[in-house]
Write a structure and sequence with these properties.
Shape of chain B: flat
Helix content of chain B: 55-70%
Radius of gyration of chain B: 23 Å
Order of helices and strands of chain B: HHHHEEHHHHHH
Largest sheet of chain A: 2 strands, antiparallel
Strand content of chain A: under 5%
Radius of gyration of chain A: 17 Å
Largest interface: A-B, 68 and 77 residues
Strand content of chain B: under 5%
Distance between the termini of chain A: 6 Å
Number of domains of chain A: 1
Number of domains of chain B: 2
Oligomer: heterodimer
């Protein structure tokens, strides 16, 4: 988690966070009414093809960019409210977990931070992590939104997870298209932009990754096996946060 | 493409310090959380509407009218089926609605609309620069505030570019209206790639421009715009805090404004 804080010393990473936030915010606004699911409440978030791509390319700048981008979407969309704070944290996880779990989610983890289109391990890792980060985002947002009385936990967790997971899976086409340009031509691949000492190496990364994975799945499906909801959701959210600290 | 909600009206709310407006907004959010009975929530909603009237922000309410109506309707219709009350009103198979859950649903619809209305008042009366300035003065580190304000400035540019790319692709025959859900999402990829590359090319240029001007994220800095807290700011905060204290006492001390016990 060290890089999340040390990135603010690096001018390029700060600009990357801004640009990611602006792209995500702009896409949320531009494509907001493209494919509505429940009019006014939620739509197929086409913009959610971006967070996974941002995360794997820009690391912590992608995480902050996704969080700020969602907040900007609320600001320009006129839906700023207390749920925006939960949206900020949830979307931060959506941008944070993919790069943090990429090399720690053993046995599926990749050895390198790079996206390797020819490696089956990269594909499995991508598919699993996009689901787990989406579920973590959904659990954290839904417990708060339920407590505020906006939308019930049981409904929202499923909608957010499905929405984010499918969009992230489709985002793999974008990642494959732009990875080479970003890394080779523009030199903006995050481990090469940040100083090595600022990146940090988690000591209990694998434990953190599995804690996040188990908590996200329990938070999502706990209700179907009879666990009390949304109380279990709160416990899972706390466990996800602890897991993130270990990553 | 004007996507900003700020309205240059010069009312007393516009002239408040951005910190007052942000803290005031948070207090109003907390007041909304004090009650879950529609009668009490209705009172709070009317109070917020009076503030909106005073801020001359009703134009923005008109802009988001469909979202507001749908939010109230959706919340009011959905909550009665999920919240459990003690006085049965209607049932059909496993679906049950109680008197308490119906009242709770209406209250939650009003609460959600009041949240959105409060946010709209803040955004209608506060420029983006004032928002980031207020956040810095409330303790947000400068690099974070800088990233946020840069992003806010870039959004209209990128949103405009996204709209142009969509139009260009449609004019070349891209059909975004038909096909299955998955295929329709897939059709956005041809738009996302040019948007991404267009935007990311800005990064190196912007970083070079900043570094050539001696930008250092960690150095202390002075600000050109330095708002001051005035008497009206303190009065506003005291008044709102008073309403919050009274509302909390009514809920916790007197047990008023509760349609659904055990829920916020």
């Amino acid at each position: 988690m060290k890089a999340v804080f040390t990135m603010w010393r690096n001018t390029r990473m700060i600009i990357l966070a801004s640009v990611c936030a602006a792209i995500y915010g702009a896409a949320l606004i531009a494509f907001k009414t493209a494919i509505p699911l429940i009019p006014g409440i939620t739509e197929v978030r086409v913009a959610n093809i971006f967070p996974m791509v941002f995360s794997l390319l820009f690391g912590p700048a992608g995480a902050w960019g996704t969080a700020f981008g969602n907040l900007i979407g609320d600001i320009f969309g006129g839906t700023l409210g207390p749920a925006s704070a939960a949206g900020f944290v949830g979307n931060f996880l959506l941008g944070y977990l993919p790069y943090a779990m990429w090399t720690t989610f053993v046995p599926f983890a990749e050895r390198s931070r790079e996206w390797n289109v020819g490696s089956w391990r990269s594909w499995i890792n991508y598919i699993l992590i996009s689901f787990l980060s989406s579920a973590s985002c959904a659990v954290v947002i839904s417990v708060v939104v339920d407590a505020l009385g906006i939308v019930p936990y049981a409904v929202l967790t499923k909608i957010i997870t499905l929405n984010d997971t499918f969009a992230s899976w489709i985002g793999v086409i974008l990642l494959t298209s732009v990875f080479g340009i970003t890394k080779e031509q523009l030199g903006l691949f995050w481990p090469e932009v940040m100083e090595e000492r600022d990146v940090g190496h988690p000591l209990a990364g694998t434990i953190g990754a599995w804690l996040v994975a188990l908590s996200a799945v329990t938070g999502l499906f706990g209700g179907t096996i009879g666990l009390p909801m949304p109380t279990t959701g709160w416990v899972c959210s706390l466990a996800i946060m602890v897991g993130c600290l270990l990553l | 493409m004007n996507i900003f909600l700020y309205l240059d009206k010069g009312t007393w709310i516009h002239h408040l310090d951005p910190r007052t407006k942000m803290i005031g907004t948070l207090i109003l959010f907390l007041i909304c959380l004090c009650f879950n009975h529609p009668l009490y929530m209705g009172g709070i909603s009317l109070g917020v509407m009076a503030i909106a009237l005073s801020a001359r922000a009703l134009f923005n309410f008109w802009r988001v009218r469909y979202i507001l109506i749908l939010l109230i309707t959706f919340s009011t219709v959905m909550w009665p089926f999920f919240a459990e009350g003690t006085t049965p009103l209607w049932s059909w198979g496993s679906l049950r609605i109680s008197e308490e859950s119906l009242l709770y649903g209406i209250a939650m619809g009003l609460r959600l609309a009041t949240f959105v209305a409060t946010g709209i008042i803040l955004l209608s009366t506060t420029r983006n620069e004032e928002l980031t300035n207020g956040l810095i003065r409330l303790g947000l580190p400068y690099p974070v505030a800088f990233a946020l304000s840069t992003a806010l400035r870039l959004v209209p540019t990128f949103a405009g570019a996204a709209a142009t790319i969509v139009q260009a692709q449609i004019s070349r025959g891209l059909d975004l209206e038909s096909g299955s859900l998955i295929s329709r999402i897939g059709k956005f990829i041809p738009q996302a790639v040019p948007l991404f590359v267009y935007a990311i090319r800005h990064t190196n240029l912007l970083a070079m421009a900043l570094e050539s001007k001696g930008f250092d994220p960690e150095s202390p800095r002075t600000l050109y715009y330095e708002p001051r807290m005035r008497k009206i700011d303190y009065l506003t905060l005291i008044l709102l805090s008073g309403v919050l204290v009274i509302s909390t006492y009514m809920r916790l001390g007197l047990g008023l404004g509760i349609a659904m016990p055990g829920r916020m």
